[in-house]
Amino acid sequence: xxxxxxxxxxxxxxxxxxxxxxxxxxxxxxxxxxxxxxxxxxxxxxxxxxxxxxxxxxxxxxxxxxxxxxxxxxxxxxxxxxxxxxxxxxxxxxxxxxxxxxxxxxxxxxxxxxxxxxxxxxxxxxxxxxxxxxxxxxxxxxxxxxxxxxxxxxxxxxxxxxxxxxxxxxxxxxxxxxxxxxxxxxxxxxxxxxxxxxxxxxxxxxxxxxxxxxxxxxxxxxxxxxxxxxxxxxxxxxxxxxxxxxxxxxxxxxxxxxxxxxxxxxxxxxxxxxxxxxxxxxxxxxxxxxxxxxxxxxxxxxxxxxxxxxxxxxxxxxxxxxxxxxxxxxxxxxxxxxxxxxxxxxxxxxxxxxxxxxxxxxxxxxxxxxxxxxxxxxxxxxxxxxxxxxxxxxxxxxxxxxxxxxxxxxxxxxxxxxxxxxxxxxxxxxxxxxxxxxxxxxxxxxxxxx
Length: 450
Fold this sequence. Notes:
Layout: H1 10-17, E1 42-49, E2 58-61, E3 75-78, H2 80-96, E4 100-108, E5 111-118, H3 128-148, H4 172-177, E6 268-271, H5 277-286, H6 288-297, E7 305-310, E8 313-319, E9 329-331, H7 340-355, E10 359-362, H8 367-379, E11 382-386, H9 399-406, E12 410-414, H10 427-442
Parallel strand pairs: 9-10, 10-11, 11-12
Antiparallel strand pairs: 1-5, 1-6, 2-3, 4-5, 7-8, 8-12
Helix pairs in contact: 2-3, 7-8
C-alpha cells in the first residue's frame, strides 16, 4: 500500500516540530470565509438544511424528461410550512433589516437557498449570521405553530412524509418524523419551486400581499427588532434557535418539553466575487427541481462510493462504476517530450476508441490532456476522470458533468480523501494519478459488486 506524505504549510510543520498542539482542520461546508467582512456590503447565496434532511418543505412532482415550460415539468409542491416560509417568513428579513434585499428564494423538500444582497453596512454589532439566525428561528417557530394547528405532522410521528430520508437517532428531525435513511442513500439535491408550475420567483424587499409583517413574538424580535445572537431571552419573548420553549410561550403548547429546531446547526454561504456568478446561481436554482428528479431516477450514479480498491490505492468514486468493466480503456497521458505529430497521432487513436464505445481515462492535468478530454466530453464519449481531491459528503457533479453522470458516461475517481485546502497539485501527485490511469486502463474489473 502506498503511503502519501501529508502536505502541510511551513508554519504548521514548525509548530508541530516545536511541540505545539495543532488542532486538526474540521472540513465542513459551513465554515465562514475568514478574510471576509460579513458586516459590510455583499451578495450571497445561502443554503439552509432541515435537520436530518427531512422533507418538511414539500414534495417533488413532475417528469424530468419533459421541457421546463411543460405543465408536468419537475417542481416542488410546497407543504404548509414551505408556503409559510415563502409567503411570510422570508419577507421579515427585509422588514427587520431594510439594508438586506432578498433577490431569490428557492425551496426544496429538505432545504432552501436564498440569494441576498446586503446593500449597506449592517447595524452596529450585527453581521450576516444574525440575519440568518433570526430567519431560521422564525421558520422554526412557524413549524411549531403549524404542528400545533394540525397542519404539519406531529413531532415523533412519520405522517405524510416523502421518500426514504430520515434523521440520525436523537436528532431534531427524528423527533419530528421518526423515519430513517438507509446507509448509502442519496440525499435530495438543491432546487426550487415557488408558486404555480414550480417556477422560482425573485423576491424584493417589500412584503407580499397577505403576508404577515414581524411583530411582538416574531422570530426577528418583539416589535420587529432583531435580538443579538446568544442574548438572554425574557419569558414570553423569542428564544434563540434551538432553545426550549416554556409552556405558555407564543409558539409553545401545554408541554414544557424541549421542541426540536427545524434546521441543522449552521449554514453555507457563497460570496459573489466575479462577473457572471450571479447569473450562474440563478440558473442553478431554476434547474434544481429537474436535477433532483434526475438524481432520484439514477441514485447509484450520484452516490459516493468509498474504499474501492484499485491496484495499491483505496479510492473514492462518483458516477458509473461499471465503466471500469468496459473492455476497451485507454490512459490519456501526454508527455512534454511528445512532438506535435506524436500528440496528433495519439489524440486520433484515443478519439477513435471513444467513438467505438471505449473509455478514456485521465487526470487531465497537462494542457493537451485537457484538450483530448474536452473534445471527448463534447462528443459524448465515456470518460473516467481522476481527481486530486476527494468528495465532500453531499457532493454532486455540476454542469455538464452532472448530465454525463446521469447518462452513465462519467466516473470520477480520487485516491485521496476530501480536503478544503487551496493548493497546487504536486509533481508527485501528478505521477501517482498517471500511474492510477495506467492501472485502470490495463486491468480488468469484472468482479465489481452490483
